[in-house]
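Course assignment 3, question 2. Fill in each field.
Student: A.L.
Task: Predict the tertiary structure for the chain below.
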Amino acid sequence: MTFGQAISDARKAKQMSQKQLASVVLKEDGTPISPQYLNDIERDRRNPPGEFLLDQFAKILGIPEEYLYFLAHEIPPKYRQVPPTSPRQVQQAFQAFARSYSRGKGGKEE
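Answer field:
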């Protein structure tokens, strides 16, 4: 699953057109994104957007923001707040995540 596919699938599940979704996702200047920009995102012709738009997509489409950040290959801001004390701590955190993630279904044992 790519970032664009996740946005497209969630939009369709909400029975929204690209034009409808684009009209409610606002840029920092308060103007809506264009339907063409949204189309480019959904078709993975653009990189995932920055935090400002990504957070709106999560909220409007009801997608956990952590999932969208994961698909965008980013760390959610709330997990960047506490700086690590060492490179080893970062390595251990990612290893723990990888173990949990590889079990599937949100880290639950199958």
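Instructor remarks: The mean pLDDT is 91. DSSP finds six helices and no strands in the chain.
Grade: pending
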